[in-house]
Specification:
Elements: H1 23-31, E1 35-37, E2 49-51, H2 53-61, H3 93-106, H4 117-124, H5 126-130, H6 134-153
Antiparallel strand pairs: 1-2
Length: 154
């Protein structure tokens, strides 16, 4: 690079993440202001939506169910907590990508270090427990015990 020029950022890894769902769920997220329909020429209704993943995660963290978000307005009922169902987060590449995104957002864009996982895991892997990933459950309980001991000794 020459003096006086600015550098452009390199993005070594870019991966779009697609969450598939029924239109009623997408429209419920739209009404909750965490999904925005994309223009889809040739279709009467939106076919794709942009998802504010941080807002989506906050809905689940707050314990909201789909019924709380009024999915009933679309003829559905679902008392489950709002979260993304994925393949096995412990073994699936696509799920690992999703977990990486969740971790990135949970940590406000800061990368983890080898010393960080014990403190960051409880925040980012609660979605794994909701998804029933036994390894995450073990790590959370181990980290939680370690955090509790640390608080007591302070």
């Amino acid at each position: 690079m020459q003096r006086g020029q600015y550098a452009s950022p390199n993005r070594p890894f870019v991966s779009p993440i697609v969450l598939a769902t029924y239109r009623e769920y997408a429209e419920t997220l739209r009404a909750a202001r965490v999904a925005t329909p994309q223009a889809t020429p040739g279709f009467d209704q939106p076919y794709f939506y942009d998802l504010d993943i941080g807002g989506f995660l906050n809905l689940g963290r707050a314990g909201n169910s789909w019924d709380d978000l009024n999915i009933g307005a679309h003829g559905f009922t679902n008392g489950n907590t709002v979260l993304a169902q994925t393949t096995d987060m412990c073994t699936s590449n696509s799920s690992a990508t999703y977990l990486g995104l969740v971790s990135y957002l949970t940590r406000n864009g800061l990368p983890t270090t080898e010393r960080d996982p014990a403190t960051s895991l409880p925040r980012s892997s609660r979605c794994c427990v909701a998804r029933d990933c036994p390894r995450a459950r073990r790590k959370i309980s181990t980290s939680s015990r370690r955090d509790e001991r640390s608080r007591r000794s302070s």
